[in-house]
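Figure 2 data, in text form.
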Amino acid sequence: MNILWLQSAGCGGCTMSLLCAEDPNVMDLLDGAGLSFLWHPSLSEMTGAPVRRMLEAIEAGEQELDILCIEGSIVRGPNGTGRYHILAGTGRSMLDWVRSLSVKAKYVVAVGTCATYGGVPSAGENPSDAIGVQYDGAHRGGALPAEFLSTGGMPVINVAGCPTHPDWVTDTLLLLAAGEMTPEALDGYGRPRFYADHLVHHACPKNEFYEYKASATNLSEMGCMMEHLGCVGTQAVGDCNIRTWNGEGSCTRAGYPCINCTAPEFEEPGHGFTETPKFAGIPVGLPSDMPKAWFMTLASLSKAATPHRIGVNATADRISVPPTLRKPKS
């Protein structure tokens, strides 16, 4: 199967993340699955007129297109023309190319939250009128209509994340190559369920502190960051702490709160990313599956039962009090 990768309005961070795929690297991995790039703007040697001819051949039906990957949000401005973003050398907007090529592709994959829901370019007043490929924020219907299906019978596959994990992209492509990606494999926002059925909270190294509501008060302290520092890992989908980055990392492992970057409209939470909005001292954003009254009851009991070790370590940047040594029973 072949892949055409278009770079739309974004920072290119999802391509940079993709290059961090390990054991094997991304090129060996795709090659082993029979996947190859027709063209990638950062990785391919071909440029200029040959690329233009290739795009025209796909559009004319002379070149088959298996997988169309789109990175970055789609710019509709000004006035719906998309001409704020012209695909260089073609005289046509990226919006026009995305709409034209999508109907030729067997599968369409939006890579990263900019491409899936609009992401950072759509924040604020959004003067460029940036949107996602098939979503405008949380609402279905973006550059492509809500009812769009590719020739393979799939809606746009939304590999959300800012940036997205390299394995989320490669696993999606491998599943497509194997014929194992179906509409049922996507969640309610079009994200592959192999990672979207998990919460960032799963396997977070701060879970012991969360259980006792032993909270950090500053960044890079060891405690749970939900109460004071804006962490929404209990509500955010992603297996970031199970399938770590570069073999060992994640946001919460590095001492920074989860900001829910796989979700529509994460870029405008209405408060600072490292602030927890509260009402009467109670965090507004609570675990997605727990009623508020239950959470407050459990939190009160947990805080009262917090062991000395956990309470002290929560506001330290490294272990200050080690676990108690227990003599084995004779």
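Caption note: The chain has two domains: 2-194, 198-317.
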